[in-house]
Design a protein that fits this description.
Layout (H helix, E strand, L loop, with lengths): L1 H11 L13 E5 L4 E8 L11 H10 L3 E5 L1 H6 L1 H9 L3 E5 L12 H19 L15 H9 L9 E2 L9 H11 L4 E6 L7 H14 L3 E2 L2 H5 L5 E4 L11 H11 L9
Parallel strand pairs: 2-3, 2-6, 2-7, 3-4, 5-6
Antiparallel strand pairs: 1-8
Length: about 260
């Protein structure tokens, strides 16, 4: 955690004891560096334990791609071996994805704080590593969520590019095309590694190859935020959660001819 405080002190001009975290959720950064952050959510709820997409992990390991994994506390509890494997990877960074995956804007403040703090404790005690950022489920955020995360010294991270992998509604070719077309330097791409993205493993290798061909290199979220010229970009307001971009929705519907109700986070 000390490293994160130092990074944010440099990036945003805070003090060593009280870093200046931005008062908003971050969708990416503006930077002259040709970098992108790939992120992978792993959540579980009371009704849905979900799983672990090992093939996605193996592709990242084979290619040695720096990546950030947003883990929910309940997912770590129900998948301890997979969580430990992620935490042991030197190229992996951990993020907080709440405990039970509720929309944090709709829960009482006491539970909001508990969802973040409990997961922080699980990550540190079970995996021996701290979260360096927090991603709210479904991308639902407001000032209360940002303040609660700030109390744990965590920036709130959303995304600039939706892979569309959640629920398996978007086919592999469409997913690859979407990510390659929309990713820009300083971007953050959201995927899933808990079985919610059945085609992610089929698309990921081509996405990595295509982003490299565009001259982009891969960094973790904390590395992205710590770039000397990085300026955080404010995510669109989403007090009730993700609202899909019209361009993405249109391409997905064209490919599948149906509506898509699965939020990405």
């Amino acid at each position: 955690m000390e490293v994160l405080l130092a990074l944010w002190t440099l990036v945003l001009g805070g003090t060593a004891t009280q870093p200046a975290l931005p008062p908003f959720a971050i969708s990416g950064v503006t930077t002259s560096e040709p970098v992108v952050a790939l992120t992978f959510d792993a959540c579980a709820t009371k009704k849905q334990a979900n799983g672990f997409d090992r093939k996605v992990f193996e592709i990242l390991a084979r290619e040695q791609i720096p990546a950030t994994f947003f883990l929910s506390g309940r997912w770590v509890e129900t998948h301890p071996e997979a969580a430990r494997e992620i935490a042991a990877a030197p190229w992996a960074e951990l993020g907080n994805h709440s405990y039970a995956h509720p929309r944090l804007t709709l829960v009482p403040k006491k539970r909001l704080k508990m969802e973040i703090r409990r997961t922080d404790e699980i990550l540190e005690t079970t995996l021996g590593r701290p979260a360096l950022s927090m991603r709210p489920p479904a991308g639902a955020w407001n000032r209360s969520v940002v303040r609660a995360a700030k109390q744990e010294n965590l920036p709130v991270i959303l995304w600039s590019v939706v892979s569309g992998d959640a629920g398996g509604h978007v086919p592999t070719t469409c997913m690859v095309r979407t990510v390659l077309d929309q990713t820009r330097p300083g971007g953050i791409v959201i995927f899933h590694i808990n079985g919610r993205g059945p085609f992610t493993k089929d698309a990921l290798a081509d996405i990595i190859t295509g982003l490299r061909a565009k001259g982009l290199r891969f960094v973790t979220v904390s590395q992205l935020l710590a770039l000397p010229d990085a300026t955080p970009v404010k995510a669109k307001p989403a007090p009730f959660g993700y609202r899909r971009l019209e361009k993405w929705r249109s391409s997905a519907r064209k490919a599948q001819g149906e509506n898509h109700e699965d939020p990405p986070g």
